[in-house]
Amino acid sequence: VSTQSTGDVNTIDCLAQINSFTCSLIDVPFGGAKGGIKINPANYTNRELEKITRRFTVELGKKGFIGPGVDVLGPDLGTGEQEMNWIADTYRNTLGSQDLNANACVTGKSQQMGGIHGRESSAGKGLYLTTAHFLDNADFMKVVRLIPGVFNKTVIIQGYGNLGKHTCRYFARDGAKVIGIIEKDASLYNPEGIDYQALQDWVELTGSVRDFPGAETTDKDMLHEPCDILIPCAVERVITSDNVNKIQAKIIVEGANCTMSPMAYEMLLKRNVLVIPDIIINSGSVCSSYFEWLKNMRHVSFGRLTFKYEREANQHLLNSVQTSIETLFNTDCPIIPSAEFESKMSGASEKDFVNSGLSYTIEGTVETVNNVRKSHDLGLDLRQACYVLAMSKIVTTYATAGYTFT
């Protein structure tokens, strides 16, 4: 669910299709959908936004368009945890008042409302992990004339919302230089790299990236500045045939949906620019939404039932090894677990489950997409490879299940 002043039914229809293909691509059993409210949230008070969101939920309920097994909503542009909390509360107290699984009608909630640890940052983490896998591929890096790996890559990010903020953090932590941030009111530039934590603190304090002391504030269009990786994380169609020739990035990562026109995409391919498409980049948020939905349907958090047992089992194992050694050599021999093993003795926490599941899903998806690209001789055309894989899975499902009404 998004709230934005632009867009129309055709755009929503297009984004719904992309969501369907993303779910198919990563083997998540959701159908894929899209919805939105055509308003500018900045023009409304928090109380007004709450009333609008709750009314939207009621209208969805009247039409049978919301429910744990019907349509599971999630946050998008202009919405976040608070809006998802309102939706869950409204559904639970109206149409879902007798539904034991009512909390699973929406994902992206706060943890107090049944959300899952790591959901907020999952879109940025998914974007980073997917990009990192492609950066580690020597074949791709040879074509775009870059050294494999994330380290020392220069990055420009358009949009510093939830996705942009976490994307900036993950890239900077692994050694990339985030040299530019593009926002609607100003842009930042620092060729030595922007301190992601200092920037996050500044935005929380002032509400804007403007005048951040750790970078030059500029009004020029950073979208056209030289960099290794350009990541549009804001709105659709920021790269078109009108400005594509000004783009100097060697890799473009579609953090937002439909960030470029088809013609611009073809022109970039001819220039050997690697475009990592939205259909696979979105997998992080979709995957973690699935994990949250599973948690709500199970009514227990991941790891809760095994924490104590696994810690005691591992401690007994260490004690058994220590006793055996001491008996054999007739001397004291304390077995002290390493810091890394000590941190994992209790088993996986909910955050560990989310991160592990996300990494595993993305790693497998990237590998499969790359195999499809090679088998169909698609060159750098990852978008077509993703669509081929996603559609083939959908066709196979229909062919296997058959048709109910023929």
Plain-language structure description:
The relative contact order is 0.12. It contains 14 helices and 9 strands. By secondary structure, the chain is of the alpha/beta class. A 7-stranded mixed β-sheet has the order 6-5-4-3-7-8-9, sandwiched between helices. A two-stranded parallel ribbon has the order 1-2. Helices cover 49% and strands 8% of the residues. It has helices at residues 9-25, 46-62, 81-92, 119-135, 138-144, 162-173, 196-206, 262-270, 278-281, 283-298, 307-329, 339-344, 350-375, 382-401; strands at 2-3, 36-37, 154-158, 177-182, 187-189, 216-218, 229-232, 251-253, 274-276.
What descriptive keywords fit this protein?
alpha/beta, 406 residues, single chain, two-stranded parallel sheet, 7-stranded mixed beta sheet, globular
